[in-house]
Fold:
Amino acid sequence: MRRDSKLDFGAGGGDDGREMRLLDRYLLHELLIPLGYCLGGFLVFWVSFDLISELDDFQRYGLSAVEVAEYYLVVLPEFVVTVAPLSLLLALLYALTNHARHQELTAMRAAGVSLWRWCVPYFATGLVFSVGVLALNEFWVPRSQELGHRILSRHASGMETGSKGRWFRNLAFHNERHRRLWNIGLYDRETGRMWQVNLDWQLENGMRRRIAAERGFFTNGAWNFHGVRQLFFTPIPEPSWESSETNQVELIELSETPSQINSEIRFISLTGARAAKRARLSLREIREYRDLHPSLPAPAQSKLETQFHGRLAEPWTSLVVVLMAIPFGAPAGRRNVFAGVAASIFIAFAFFFTQWFSLALGTGGYVVPWVAAWTPNAVFGLLGLLLVLRVR
Structure:
């Protein structure tokens, strides 16, 4: 063992539980140091490279140094989600290779500590990473690009519109399940306010109701419209209609919310291949969209289901990484640290290429979406498990 090792497996008569807790803390400490370096290194490299390439845009947008820092703070979670598994893989291989080089793994086995037992801190770290990635994907990453774009356009003159801007023009929103069609001239994504609203839907008695409002807003769980002209149309048994005008109408029967309308706008960005590849949709957004659009065409359905299962499968990549790292770093003997790093690069390339290719097949409708999303985790996880079982 190394001279600075804080554990002595040769001493008998001690408290086994206390020794195992000391072992867990020691292994975790030896992992977290290189893990911090890996995450920090990737972060510095990414920010530096991106800053150089985007510096002209920052100057054109008129951002100050504080606003540039705010921009990178906002978009940082998306990058963390991407590099977290690779950082964990590199750190694990480095830590395990160091332990093997200094005969610490041999000492643990000689003391009766099984391989699975001393790997508990590693699996615990992988589980923490998985839960963290799941939380980031659900609550922060979906809005990171949008918030970053708002910071970039903070000093833009006029009202910038589009799928990433605050304002969106000429929005057509169809709620298939409740047979309501919204046409909104101008929509404010931050406040949920809208102008030049046309709404058409069928009532339970077969009558159609149409309203045209100058503006509308959502408050206390209901939509309020001002400057309203409305039309009630009955197609059978004989066509008839009744029109009226009023200053204000509150419609508590409308189930749509600003959150659902914002999700609809985000899905508009999926029409382009490049945008669809970069899309980060939360599970809630996908469920809401699927609920409002039960009759999606097959290509759109494949894309949506693949996104959904991909979001479910992605966080557990960190646990798969642990299973892949153990057999490469745990074998006894003096090992070259750089051999483990080289192995990690090859493993990461093979895994992420398989993941990308599988998701592409699912998005294109060539593979069942849940199979496309979970196959890389299942294949590499099973391979890692078989290799771990062969470690001596």
About this structure: The two ends are 18 Å apart (CA to CA).
